[in-house]
């Protein structure tokens, strides 16, 4: 370990922003909060951390660790205690100054604050609490804040931080207790799930008294007793207003909810096991998002798998697609995978793969199918399914109409009919449709143009590309 004395804030920023790069935070904020005349900033329910919002904007987040010093020795972590790396720590004032200066320059729209564990979880989270308190109360920062909760933190600190942050997250890290014991022996499932349960119950409790008068609200906050541990029997905790403060009338506890992260590929769990864990977290803990982080072997530890072929990014992508199906499309994990088929098909997205294994349910008549049935058709998303439901009240839809609505016909045409007819004669056979979907990067079948008409094949047919004169000369010269 290398600790430099008198380190500049610029140097700290370089070290602690780089140290935070493996903590996934690309998500929508999930909270709308307008600016006011007493502070600076606001929060919009759109993307953060170098991602794209629904209206096409690319907006960003200051993503840092409070410290990369750590008493834990998790084998997969670059900041583990046994690594000989340069260590640095911010002070609460430094984080506040950085956030405010970056915000004023329009570099960021919020703060993502995570941390290693310096001295103890409570010591570190006390420093983070003071940082958030200063940002909100002294600097009047009204922008978005996402804060990581360290497993093992005292419930009173978790409660206090929840009134200042927009989103909280406590990383599960690995899917099973056995994997956690193997690669992160200082952590255990109980200490991770305990704050997750507390956050869920506090948010549920808060919904009960929204809208009542201030006196009753603060009385409920002070008197409420929350069972935050259901694994070893009831353990009641008196959760009080943060350190005796009186809350403003419109104060909300973690309004953007909570999330967690799973490392993919560090241990041998199947996709089925991972998705089963995610489904349970959504159902039992009310999580907004489960993030999947492809394992990167930064420590070259012998207990870690080799990543000579790079991190399993395609597997991570398939898990995100399946996660979307669970949250918005009405699928269950057991429909997508089982013990006989424990991993996703890397060649096809989970929805197409499911449809190919259930061809007895297709084709679907788009002019008659209900909303949930339409959602299960490859190429039809949530918005396009709603458009279909709305449009067919006034007209009988055909394939031209579907194309205008944004349906991805290069996938959907194998699974739908319009007025009882398919777009063109198709053999309803798993092997045939699979080959068509995989051929030429899922391009539209030959003969189907933007106007759904047949025409003669041209040199640049498949990419709708018209070369300029320079490209034509180059192509002919190489022929």
From TrEMBL:
<protein>
    <recommendedName>
        <fullName>DNA modification/repair radical SAM protein</fullName>
    </recommendedName>
</protein>
<dbReference type="InterPro" id="IPR058240">
    <property type="entry name" value="rSAM_sf"/>
</dbReference>
<dbReference type="InterPro" id="IPR010994">
    <property type="entry name" value="RuvA_2-like"/>
</dbReference>
<dbReference type="InterPro" id="IPR023874">
    <property type="entry name" value="DNA_rSAM_put"/>
</dbReference>
<dbReference type="GO" id="GO:0051536">
    <property type="term" value="F:iron-sulfur cluster binding"/>
</dbReference>
<dbReference type="InterPro" id="IPR007197">
    <property type="entry name" value="rSAM"/>
</dbReference>
<dbReference type="GO" id="GO:0046872">
    <property type="term" value="F:metal ion binding"/>
</dbReference>
<keyword id="KW-0408">Iron</keyword>
<keyword id="KW-0411">Iron-sulfur</keyword>
<dbReference type="InterPro" id="IPR051675">
    <property type="entry name" value="Endo/Exo/Phosphatase_dom_1"/>
</dbReference>
<dbReference type="InterPro" id="IPR013785">
    <property type="entry name" value="Aldolase_TIM"/>
</dbReference>
<dbReference type="Pfam" id="PF13353">
    <property type="entry name" value="Fer4_12"/>
</dbReference>
<keyword id="KW-0479">Metal-binding</keyword>
<keyword id="KW-0949">S-adenosyl-L-methionine</keyword>
<dbReference type="GO" id="GO:0003824">
    <property type="term" value="F:catalytic activity"/>
</dbReference>
């Amino acid at each position: 370990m290398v600790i430099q004395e008198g380190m500049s804030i610029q140097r700290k920023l370089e070290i602690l922003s780089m140290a935070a790069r493996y903590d996934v935070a690309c998500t929508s904020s999930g909270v709308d909060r307008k600016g006011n005349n007493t502070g600076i900033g606001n929060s919009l329910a759109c993307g953060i951390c170098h991602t794209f919002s629904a209206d096409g904007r690319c907006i960003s987040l200051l993503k840092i660790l409070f410290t990369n010093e750590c008493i834990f020795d998790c084998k997969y972590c670059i900041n583990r205690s046994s690594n000989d790396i340069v260590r640095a720590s911010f002070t609460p004032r430094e984080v506040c100054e950085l956030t405010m200066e970056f915000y004023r320059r329009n570099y960021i729209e919020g703060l993502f604050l995570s941390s290693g564990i310096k001295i103890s979880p409570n010591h570190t989270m006390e420093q983070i609490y003071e940082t958030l308190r200063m940002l909100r109360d002294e600097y009047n920062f009204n922008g978005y804040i996402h804060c990581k909760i360290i497993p093992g933190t005292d419930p009173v600190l978790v409660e206090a931080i929840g009134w200042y942050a927009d989103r909280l997250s406590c990383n599960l890290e690995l899917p099973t207790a056995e994997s956690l014991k193997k690669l992160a022996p200082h952590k255990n499932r109980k200490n991770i799930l305990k704050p997750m349960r507390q956050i869920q119950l506090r948010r549920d409790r808060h919904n009960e008294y929204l809208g009542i008068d201030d006196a009753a609200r603060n009385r409920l906050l002070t008197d409420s007793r929350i069972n935050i541990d259901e694994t070893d029997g009831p353990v009641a905790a008196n959760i009080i207003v943060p350190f005796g403060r009186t809350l403003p009338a419109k104060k909300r506890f973690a309004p953007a909810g909570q999330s967690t992260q799973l490392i993919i590929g560090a241990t041998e769990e199947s996709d089925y096991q991972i998705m089963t864990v995610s489904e349970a977290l959504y159902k039992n803990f009310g999580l907004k998002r489960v993030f999947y982080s492809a394992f990167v072997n930064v420590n070259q530890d012998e207990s870690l798998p080799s990543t000579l072929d790079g991190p399993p990014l395609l597997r991570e992508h398939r898990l995100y697609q399946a996660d979307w199906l669970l949250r918005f499309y009405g699928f269950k994990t057991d429909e997508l995978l089982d013990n006989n088929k424990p991993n996703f098909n890397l060649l096809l997205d989970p929805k197409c793969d499911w449809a190919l294994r259930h061809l007895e349910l297709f084709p679907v008549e788009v002019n008659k199918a209900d909303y949930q049935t339409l959602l299960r058709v490859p190429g039809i998303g949530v918005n396009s399914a709603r458009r279909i439901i709305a449009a067919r009240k006034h007209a009988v839809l055909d394939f031209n109409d579907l194309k205008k609505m944004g349906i991805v016909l290069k996938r959907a045409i194998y699974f739908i009919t319009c007025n009882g007819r398919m777009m063109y004669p198709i053999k309803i056979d798993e092997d045939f449709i699979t080959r068509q979907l995989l051929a030429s990067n899922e391009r539209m079948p030959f003969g189907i143009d933007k106007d759904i008409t047949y025409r003669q094949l041209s040199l640049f047919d498949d990419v709708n590309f018209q070369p300029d004169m320079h490209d034509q000369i180059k192509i002919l010269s190489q022929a």
